[in-house]
Amino acid sequence: MDSVSFHDRAEHTSGMQKVELGPADLYAGHRRIPDKFPRIALLILVVELGERFTYFGLSGPMQNYIKWVKLAVNPYDPGSDLPGALGRGQAVASALGNFFKFWAYASTIIGAIIADQYVGKFKAITISLGIYVGGLTILVATATPAGIQSNAGFGGLVAAMVIIGLGTGGIKANVTPMCAEQYQNAEPVLKTLESGEVVVVDLELTIQRLFMWFYWVVNVGALSPLVTVNVEAKASFWLAYLIPLIAICLSAVVFLSGQKKYVKVPPQGSAIIDACKVLNIVRQERHFLDAMPSSLEAAGRLDKYPFASSARYTDQYVADVRRGFRSCRMFIFLPFYFICWVQIWNNLISQAGQMALHGTPNDLLQNLDPIALCIFIPLLDLGLYPLLRKFKINFSPVRRIFTGFLLVSFSMVYASVLQHFIYTSPTKSIHVWIQAPAYIFVAISEAFVIVTGLELAFTHAPKNLRSFISALFWLMIGIAAAICIGLTPVSRDPYLVWMYGSLGIVGFVAGCLFYACFRKSASLNPKTLDIVEGVEGNREGVSHVANYGKHSEA
Question: Which is more confidently placed, 425 or 82?
Answer without folding.
Answer: 425
